[in-house]
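Objective 1.3, modelling of assemblies. Example input:
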Amino acid sequence: MSFRTRLLSGFLLLALLPLAAFAVGLRREITQRLTAEFDRQADLATASMEADLSSQSRMIERRLIALAARVADDDRLRRAILVGPGSPDRAYQLDFASAVMEPAGLSVLQLQDASGRILSSGHFRNEFDRLAPELPDVLGRLTGGATLTTIRTADTSFVALVRMQTLRVSGQPLVLVGGLRVGDQFLASLAPDEAVTVLLELPGAAAAGSDPAAAGSAEAATAAAVTDLPANRVVGRIEFPFAGPGGAEEAQAHFVIRQSLAALTALQRSLSLWFAAGSGLALLGAMLLAAWVSARLSRPLEELSKKTSRLDLDRLDIDFRSSRRDEVGDLSRLLQAMTGRLRASASRLRDAERQATRGEMARQVNHDIKNGLVPIRNVVEHLTQVTQDEPEQLGRVFADRGTTLISGIRYLEDLAANYARLAPKAEPQRIDVNRNIGEIAAAGNLAVRCEVIMEPDLPALHGDPVAFRRILENLISNAREAVGEGGGPVRVRAERVRQDGSDQIRISVEDDGPGLQPEDRDKIFADFFTTRPGGTGLGLSIVRRLVTDMGGRISVHSEPGQGARFTVELPAAEHSAGERVDRSPEPAK
Amino acid sequence: MGLHVRHTFVAPARRARIAASLATGLGVVSCARPPPEPSGWVRDGCSVQAFSPDLRLGESSRAPVLRVGLPQIVRFRPRDTASGEDERVVFQHVYETLVATDCGNRALPGLAAQWTPSEQGRRWDFALRPGASFSDGTPVDAAAIRASWRRTRVAGVTVDSVVGKNGAGGITIHLAAPGVQEPRAFAHPDLSVRRVPRGSGWPLGTGPYRVASASDDRTVSLHPVRASTEAAAAPRLQFEAVTASRARNLLDLGWEAVLTRDRRVTQYAADIPRLGAVELPWDRTYVLVVPSTSGFGVDPVPAGLLQVLARDAVRAQARPFPGRMELGEHSEARCRVAGPPTVAAFAEAAHPPDPPAPPAPIRRIGYDRDDPTAAGLAARLVALGGGRTAHGEDAPARFLAKALGLENQPDLAAELRALPMSADSLRRLMPAPLGSAPAPPGSPPTPQISPPAPAHAYVIGLPTVVPACVRIPGYHLFPLIMTRLTLIMDRRLGRVLLGPGGLPMFANSIMSGS
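Predicted structure (tokens):
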């Protein structure tokens, strides 16, 4: 697990645990309070319903009292009742209840005489003359004066809340029975709000089953539908007198108050949803914060890691300086100091290496000179011997051995020239890269065809122009020897690259020669390592030193049979006014 | 050789003119003993004449539009036949039959001016009225009559062929045996000549009027056919089927005439000086149709029940059905036109030989929800059928309990309900002859019936003569009450002719100048 991942996980845990505890606790508290409020509303609904039923009963009573007064004042009705079926006002009598029922706000109204004979019915006009004394009898016995009963019409039946009012017309006792239909609308009016559903349970399932219409089929269906809902609960039952059809079968009906928990459930669902949304947002915020913090903490370490990964004996110029005052700053400064020590050690190592090299070189010079002097000495001793023994043959022998002598001398001259190159005198100045490359490529003394690609306006280098020319000449010469006589071309490319915040001049010399074996690639820049017979093994070694002295580095990319590309990267010179720029290169020595 | 009867009538230019002349010269059966008319109106034969000192016919003019309110039950739909006699008040202005009848059910020239029967009533040669054409001017010929009758089935009149004769306007109709003996058989409304236009719309007729517009099934306007020589003077007719309350509104709004069965409308009109009322013949009988499987015996309908129904249960002008014997010779004569004797048919219907299924109690009494009279009757039967004794008389309840199969079943009796139905639903459920267009007076009975499922009883209104003529295997018909229309007219509407069945024809009504 990475440092950043650990940081991220830690931040998340830190943010989520308290948030989850807060959300659960708050939700539980709110749910309890909502449930308590719903319970209180249910109690209020039951009390309100009882009051409403009582109010409806009183309202029916008032309307019946008013209708009784109207009956007593209606002369046509009075005549019709007194005369009986033969009265010319018979139709008026039969239509009387129909005419006044709805204007009086009632849905049940019938006028009956003392025997229970229906004189006029508003809800069932053609029920006249039917004997129905049971309902007035029941109503007369009731204490509260109101009852529920099943009212029959021509084409249906319904449950109604009815009362009775007695009156006298010309000394004849009459009864007005009136009431309101207890249908969906009535039950809905009893409910104080939409969350409360009021149902009517008639006594005995048999009654409802035997006559669904009489039991109020709509209400029964509603009851069944509501009962099926799991989110409903019975919160109250109000008992009310019930008289069966025609007033028989006195029993008790019940108004069942059901409270829908849908609103509560919806509220809780909404609450949970909002908590979930809030938690999600908090989680997202925590993740973003944790990511930002962990990135802020780990980014300096990553930068240090990147710089450290570039650190090499040839690249000890990595800048670890930091102004931070924390552990990362301390670590940077430690790395900066370590880099400094490494540079010093590398310098000492190079010095030791130079000394060793000089010793090695001395031995090599000694060896080489001895090797060069041995044939010369042999020729000289031979010539001396001939001079002493056969003077007349001296000319012939000299002619024969002179070539050997000259060859040895040339060998020594070459040896001297090469050793002279091992100690160039540095003379730092600004170097025009393109110009120098162009001149070297155009000179033709390297005996190879060069293809040169140079980025225009390359910045200048700062260093010894001679060393720079030697670097190029050696690399091109090395490539020429790789491709052989008539081979080529050698591709030279110069370009500017940006590395570590500074401009670099990258020069590559590429050939199509046999390439390098993998095991040779690591030793190609070592002193005296050569893959060619007769080679000194010093050319590329000198090039590496010259490049390093100029603050650059050299690398090789090569595969067997696919040629080789030597890449030199040199730091570009910072421009400063008045500085001398080398524009007239010295010839290579 | 069989009986050969030749009837020859010379047709005037317009049937109304003939009707007017007949009204003064001919005695009629149903119109011969009219009930007392309100003051200011006299019914003279087949016309109703205003009797007003202010009316001078010589100075009368005609109203440009004659507006007539009709009973609520009326429906106007573009179909082949009118479903009720009240609708024929409208359609008799538009569609004609070969032979017409007057209010006394006597044959008159209609689309045909002359006719001659032969081959014992199996061949009838008609001479069409000169210039007989549809309202769009298309001449009437044998092919048009044949096409018009293509889907028509009238019991007792089985048409084999309709062919043209030599000479203009001559057609010959061949009937299947036994043929018909009286030309009135061709006055059946289902044999009216009409031409169905392409697409939808009202069929074209040959009468003096055409259907100009019908905004819905409650309102229809008739315009005079322009080819008519009297078209320029004939009023346009506007009919609207209305409830009793709207009928009173229309009278207040000055409509010229209202046809109603509701006593309240008549009573209301009696208080309006400009209006007069004429009671038309008893034209409709309401019957209780009960499946014989309900367990009905042979008990007659108690007279007390009929009295109560007619007096109290309905708001129509009603009287108790007098019983089949009181139909007398008149009804039997009608039913003999092309079928078995009326009384025999009714008796056979009342005594089905083998009930097709065990008795099943009736729990619903269906009725046309647009017919207030049927609704009142059904409601009263439900009230009485509830098994309770009314006013000390239990005969009606006993009769109904027995008729509906509810004897000794008080629970089922308490469940008896009226069932309001649409006219179309009722027509589909009812046996064929009752579900189809009722036959007018003089039409032959229809003996063939397919029995329906004996689930409900029904209260329906039929033309008065039908209950005495119809035979329905598996069903009993109990005639309950008879009703009639009352024509309430503006007194300036000087004269209205009465057509078949005593229904008024407004085509040639005269409106006095105001």
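Residues 372-384 of chain B form the longest helix (13 residues).
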